[in-house]
Design brief:
Length: 403
């Protein structure tokens, strides 16, 4: 079954085209990335199997334009891998927020789209982009079944004392105000893959998974099930991110609104799109730009990178306490897989856990690697995530069951 997997992030679209024969037997036909969406200059990278890769700088104003670029590239006479869109048998999408409507992947229908739309308030940077992706595919491939895999589904195992806020209970009953988390597809994949890679039994383990990218979250996973995660009602909660502020005193929100005369929507826009790396540094929302600026001596860039490491250190400490120990710490996603300096900064502060860091092994990017010494009480690993493969598997099963 040829499946196109679309993974729309807050500033990117990752995609893979796979020929799925079974869960573990498949061929990757092409993969790519549209990145820096909404920034002055973005980029497209397309890697067709057996052909030369394509990479170019291009302005990508929004996700709709990015989606058109993806579909056009797949049927390009030179760099494409399909004769026509009709070769695609199913499409699977990553969706950040499904609230408590969904605890597993589902096929797309009008009701599902309306529930995803309802959750746009919970994930303002993501869910609207997911809907655009679904609609764009529907226009080109109206008869092809589409499935959605929710980032929130894996976190449904959190206990109520972890996901509830200490607000009047009626807001939970009326408006579903509670913590949901995000990046669940990635956390689930790397927890299982990390356990296998490091020789642990997933069903008898305590793992902290650190998904660090433009959007970042950390999860505590006990015996393969999430007991806590850093993102909350929306992906705004937690650590500093590309354009999101993360945790702040809630009174800061109303204070700034009164001082600046801002509406709720304007303040939401500031916290989600103008804060984080971009707001604090005044330079960029991209960690690679901040690394370059920090190396050139920019103090605010250095501040952002220090804060990022500090936030991760705090969350790991919290989750080690929640789980009464930890067997494995996993780094994954764009920054987690490629920024060795960040991994070192974090792990240097975890010696109290009995962690012994292998500094030589850490000089690696984008490759599954054990980063702890043999006598370390806690294992640390770089595990490359593959949300697209998880989504393709779920899509394959849903479409096959339907038929």
């Amino acid at each position: 079954m040829i499946i196109l997997v679309i993974n729309c992030g807050s500033s990117s679209i990752k995609y893979q085209l796979l020929d799925m024969k079974s869960d573990k037997v498949y061929d990757l036909l092409a993969k790519g990335l549209v990145e820096k969406i909404g920034l002055p200059m973005g980029g497209l990278t397309h890697k067709p199997t057996g052909k030369d890769p394509v990479s170019r700088e291009v302005v990508v104003p929004d996700h709709k334009v990015g989606m058109k670029m993806v579909l056009d590239e797949l049927v390009n006479p030179v760099s494409g891998v399909l004769k026509s869109f009709e070769d695609i048998e199913a499409v699977g999408h990553r969706v950040v927020q499904g609230a408590d409507f969904f605890s597993s992947s589902v096929l797309v229908n009008d009701d599902v789209i309306e529930k995803i739309r309802f959750c746009c308030d919970f994930a303002p940077l993501h869910n609207p982009a997911h809907i655009l992706g679904i609609q764009a595919v529907k226009e080109v491939l109206p008869s092809v079944p589409q499935a959605v895999t929710f980032d929130t589904a894996y976190h449904q195992t959190m206990p109520d004392y972890a996901y509830m806020y200490a607000l009047p209970y009626e807001y939970y009953e009326k408006y579903r105000v509670r913590r949901y988390g995000a990046h669940g597809t990635s956390h689930q994949y790397v927890a299982a893959k990390g356990a296998e890679f490091c020789g642990l039994d997933l069903n008898n383990s305590k793992i902290i998974t650190c998904h660090i990218g433009n959007g970042s979250s950390i999860s505590a996973v006990v015996n393969g099930k999430v007991v806590d995660t850093s993102m909350g009602f929306t992906p705004l909660e937690g650590m500093i991110m590309g354009t999101r502020c993360g945790n702040i005193d809630p009174n800061v929100v109303t204070y700034i609104m009164k001082k600046e005369g801002l509406t709720p929507d304007q303040m939401t826009d500031i916290m989600n799109k103008k804060s984080g790396f971009a707001g604090l540094s005044g330079i960029s929302s991209d960690a690679r730009d901040l690394d370059a600026a920090a190396n050139a001596g920019n103090e605010r860039a250095k501040l952002v990178l220090k804060k990022l490491a500090y936030d991760i250190i705090k969350l790991i400490g919290q989750y080690a306490a929640v789980m009464d120990g930890v067997d494995l710490i996993v780094f994954t996603a764009g920054i987690g897989e490629n920024n060795s300096r960040l991994r070192r900064r974090v792990c240097e502060n975890l010696s109290y856990l009995g962690l012994k860091f292998d500094f030589e092994a850490n000089a690696v990017t984008g490759k599954d690697t054990l980063l702890s010494c043999p006598d370390s009480k806690v294992k640390v690993a770089l595990i490359t995530t593959d949300e697209e493969l998880m989504i393709a598997r779920d899509t394959m099963h849903l479409v096959a069951d339907k038929d």
